[in-house]
Design a protein that fits this description.
Helices cover 67% and strands 3% of the residues. By secondary structure, it is mostly helical. Among the domains are: 93-153 and 193-285, no CATH class; 295-434, no CATH class; 487-600. The protein has a four-stranded mixed β-sheet. Strand 5 and strand 6 form a beta hairpin. Helix 2 (16-36) packs parallel to helix 4 (62-85), helix 3 (39-57) runs antiparallel to helix 4 and helix 18 crosses helix 23 (436-454). The longest helix has 26 residues, at 330-355.
Length: 601
């Protein structure tokens, strides 16, 4: 019904302006929905409307088509990101807590300490940048991390559309960007990675400039690429390494092709190499270089000792390839099938692009980038510990920046092959041409199903085991499976835990240690409590703790459900019972309680 209404609505170009105005309002309606409790419904409606409206958009005049898609992409992007980040008033996620901690350290000191031992301190995107914005705008730190960075990241799909548009039709470029936004990391994980959000925005801007050959060859264009390169380097260390490798691969591959890159790319590559080495070796305290060396060391040891061991690869790889046990049920089988089919379309699209006989200058530039994206995914699958060290979901999300156009190509190729077989069988060996819009409508339909499953909305509707804090947060908090509860508290900061952490910050005596479980230590006590994750103050219940002269911080998860999470015994979902520390609690006094979290000392 939505599809038919979309087709009817777009029969004339006079409907363009009202629909564009409605699309502009969608993200703000999505943000409002996060507060009124209907986010699980409105979020999907926004995405479905944005996706299926594509079926009618083919009737928009060519003069208005790009304008429509740009506004539609911006509306969908902002809706997804704001609906995710505004689910809670507090910081949500994992890395964002230490990012906020580093911001607070710089804000209090009034100066950035370059020799800090903390890895995140090397990222000026989460230290100096938000401080400058805060001083200029008078916004607090929490609103900046919850709003400014997601809004900045919502521009990435817009730049990607303009980039893809250089070698693709408007409809195909829209589908490629839609596939990029459909991956859950875009709207669930990236909102807690402010430094990567900033870095990716600059990377896609550089990519757009490189593909804009006339602009890149001007002095101002080359200078802009240099400035953006410096921004990538000081924004995120891992992305800086990947960016440096991308530039190097582009320059080398250009020597074996028809030289389609701007003439200053060798100079820019040399500048990037010098800047990365100078920043991370001399300015930022060598912490990031040490981290990179540890990744190479773990991968090398894995190749030598544990290449055939399944534990050396992330579990998600076995789930994606169908080699792990799955939850029984027809919907779970459909989920696996749609996930595998999406990856199959990516592969087919890349191979089709590889075999394309005559490529334009833009396509010859994009192909090495696609190759690097595929190579990154291949390394995560083949190399032991590589996917775990860099986080496989983030690797895939970065790779999608370059290989997302392969998805609509793959769907179009598969659909045309099936159409050819059926048309020849139906018309006695005579091939009937395929309508140009049908394959794109098929790709949009696949994307809708892919999103509904991968986002966790299907499991929320069918009351299956919840997987999404956006759609099903309340059920996750009270679900019988302890691992689901832990995932909820790993991503959310509840009000009682926040209040207890603020009490610790205000009334802790001297440098007295605070013992807490893995989640509390690395989340609320880090960001709101002001306690660093590592160093001399490192403790963790129930194994590493000086019970005689430390505070005991017990969260809502500990007190209400009687369990805790630990990162020292294995994966995060490894639990321990609160009864393990009862002998130590009876020797202490409860000095704070708010009906949920408690502190003993």
């Amino acid at each position: 019904m939505v599809l038919l209404s979309g087709q009817v609505a777009w029969r004339g170009s006079r409907c363009v302006c009202p629909i564009l105005a409605l699309a502009f309002l969608l993200p703000w309606l999505g943000a409002l929905a996060s507060y009124v409790g209907a986010r699980y419904l409105l979020l999907v409606i926004f995405f479905v409307v944005g996706s299926v409206a594509f079926a009618g958009a083919v009737r928009v005049s060519p003069a208005n088509r790009d304008r429509f898609f740009i506004i539609l992409i911006g509306a969908v992007s902002m809706s997804l990101l704001l609906s995710a980040t505004l689910v809670s008033d507090n910081l949500a996620g994992y890395d964002i807590h230490e990012e906020f901690y580093m911001y607070q350290q710089v804000s209090r000191a009034g100066v950035w300490q370059s020799e800090s031992p903390f890895l995140y301190n090397t990222s000026l995107s989460i230290t100096i940048l938000p401080l400058i914005v805060s001083l200029v705008s008078s916004f607090g730190g929490v609103p900046l991390f919850k709003l400014m960075f997601p809004l900045l990241f919502s521009c990435v799909p817009l730049v990607l559309y303009k980039t893809y548009r250089k070698s693709m039709t408007a409809e195909t470029a829209f589908l490629a960007v839609l596939f990029f936004m459909s991956y859950p990391t875009f709207y669930e994980e990236m909102i807690q990675l402010s430094r990567q959000e900033t870095g990716e925005f600059m990377v896609v801007l550089v990519l757009w400039l490189i593909l804009s050959r006339k602009l890149a060859q001007t002095r101002s264009g080359a200078l802009t690429i240099v400035v953006l390169t410096a921004g990538v380097v000081v924004s995120h260390y891992s992305l800086a390494y990947i960016y440096l490798f991308l530039l190097g691969f582009l320059v080398v591959s250009d020597r074996f092709s028809r030289r389609v890159l701007p003439r200053d790319m060798v100079t820019i590559l040399f500048f990037s190499l010098v800047l990365v080495l100078s920043w991370y070796a001399f300015v930022a305290g060598q912490t990031a270089l040490t981290s990179l060396a540890s990744v190479f060391s773990s991968v090398a040891n894995g190749l030598w000792n544990e290449f055939l061991s399944p534990t050396s690869r992330p579990l998600v790889i076995f789930e994606a390839t169908g080699l792990s046990q799955t939850t029984p049920g027809i919907l779970h089988q459909v989920n696996r099938a749609i996930q595998l089919f999406a990856q199959f379309c990516l592969t087919i699209g890349f191979l089709a692009f590889l075999r394309k006989p005559s490529k334009s200058a833009t396509e010859r530039t994009m192909f090495p980038l696609m190759t690097v994206g595929v190579a990154m995914l291949g390394c995560a699958i083949v190399l032991p510990f590589f996917g775990a060290a860099l986080t496989i979901s983030r690797i895939y999300q970065i790779a999608l920046l370059f290989i997302a156009p392969c998805f609509p190509y793959g769907v179009e190729l598969l659909y045309s092959a099936v159409w050819r077989i059926f048309s020849m069988a139906r018309h006695g060996g005579v091939h009937v041409g395929i309508p140009s819009s049908q394959s794109r409508v098929m790709a949009a339909s696949i994307l809708i199903i892919y999103f509904l499953f991968s986002s966790g909305w299907v499991w929320a509707v069918t009351m299956d085991q919840p997987t999404s804090r956006i759609f099903d947060g309340e059920r996750m908090e009270n679900y019988p499976n302890p691992s689901v509860k832990i995932r909820y508290f790993d991503e959310f900061v509840v009000a009682q835990d926040l209040a207890a952490a603020l009490w610790v910050r205000s009334y802790r005596m001297g440098d007295r240690l605070v013992c807490a479980d893995y989640i509390s230590k690395y989340h609320v006590l880090n960001s709101y409590g002001g306690i660093p994750r590592s160093g001399v103050q490192f403790t963790e219940l129930p194994l590493v703790c000086r019970f005689s002269d430390s505070y005991f911080y017990l969260s809502v998860l500990n007190m209400r459900f009687g369990i805790g999470a630990t990162g020292l015994r294995g994966p995060l979902n490894t639990t321990w019972s609160i009864s393990e520390i009862y002998p130590y609690l009876v020797t202490k006094n409860r000095i704070y309680s708010n009906g949920g979290a408690s502190i003993y000392g």
